Amino acid sequence: MRLSNSFIKTLRDAPKDETAKSAGFLIRAGYIYKEMAGVYDYLPLGLKVIENIKGIVRDELNKIGGQEVLMAALQNPELWKKTDRWDDQKVDIWFKTELSAGGELGLAPTHEEPITNMLKTYVKSYKDLPLAVYQFQTKFRNELRAKSGIMRTREFIMKDLYSFHTSEEDLDRYYHEVENAYARIYDRLGLGDITFETFASGGVFSKYSHEYQTFIPVGEDTVYYNKDKSVVLNEEVLQDDVLEDLGVKRDELEETRAAEVGNIFKLKFKYSEPLGLKISDENNEIKTVYMGCYGIGISRVMGVIAEKFCDDKGLVWPENIAPFKFYLAPIGENGSKIAEEIYLGNEDKILFDDRALRPGEKFADAELMGIPFRVVISDKTLAENSVEITNRKTGESELVSIEEFKKSI
RNA sequence: CUGGGUGUAGCGCAGUUGGUAGCGCGCAGCGUUCGGGACGCUGAGGUCGCCUGUUCAAGUCAGGUCACCCAGACCA
After folding, report:
1. ∠A102-A105-A109 over CA atoms, to 5°?
2. Per-residue model confidence as pLDDT tens digits over A261-302
3. Between the CA of A6 and the C1' of B53, what is the distance in angstroms?
4. Rounded CA gap, A408 and A392, in Å?
5. CA at A28, C1' at B28: how many angstroms apart?
6. 0.80 cut: is pTM over it?
7. Under CATH, to which class is A324-408 assigned?
8. Rg of chain A over CA atoms, in angstroms?
9. Does domain A21-311 have CATH number 3.30.930.10?
């Protein structure tokens, strides 16, 4: 991508209405644009980050048999009435609207109802199970208070996976597969060392559910953990009977702030029963399908990663998340000429700062945007037939021959 | 929703006892610069969040309203 062609312009000052450092940097560096409280646009660089995060999640979910779909955001109230989740008294985060032809619609806050209903057309037999379906989709939740930039918004991108099974054993089996997949996902996202499976309240059918909590100061949840972090629990289940279940003592627990970056639930019959998702089993008996659901907030994860990987100069993306691996910054006419040659054919790997700016401005933008490697070509480096590669994270620079660099791209 | 705070140019801000709006950055043009956001000159850009009121006169005073931020509450 050429910066000279990009409509992005970096800002020297963060808008004063953003206090989360991730949001400040993401806006200053031109990754996101704020429309209103809790509503953000993703600009070219931000979209690439989102796609990179999705790519990691997609890869791991495909490994455990997930089939990707994309479901509608607009929701039919009838389905939600069947599960008693249309009533504003029961679910208070709905965005609802009216059809001009008459009747109501809702903007999906989650997708258990439609996917369960949709699968009634396709899932008829035990032979059709198990099944795992997921999507990356925009959810709408009318939160009382949006905050912390893209960490808590009213419109956000979520990965939601739903699994369908003939038995509780098979649901348990798959649940563990998802746990393993999630561990790999958070590792690959660079959050593995501070993200923990956490006990949380489970709703009607199970005593607990699991959340994935990333320990980070801007997180809005309070969680408690024992020293080795083998047990982490949400404040909402900090009760004596729970502590007994988990085999930990209150005075062994430490408190910290954390951001919920995912959750997994065993739904069992919660939605399949009222919506009538049933199959014929081996004995031709009609059975209700067991379900599980598993979420990851993609856009929130982006905020959490930005929050973790930054310094006083800006963002510091991990290589596999960064929108580009290299920030190519030529200095002077000769440098520009060689840079053009290097850029050609590597447009997807290189963010090419071909703007007619002074070096200092290019360096500052490279750092603000958090591109992993800054590649400078100037008369100085050309004298050595080299480019200078600076690691954003460590700040270390080295001269690498032009040929060698071309190969390494 | 409760409490606190803030709305003036794209962004960050100033604006005195009410007298018709200014600074920095950014933007446009010209010139000098060119390895850490350089400089000079010229210029464009504003119904001062919105409504109502007080007044000869409101960015400034009063009432209302909307938006945004923070803390809390809430949160499959």
Report:
1. 175
2. 999 999 999 999 999 999 999 999 999 999 999 999 999 999
3. 49
4. 17
5. 23
6. yes
7. alpha beta
8. 24
9. yes
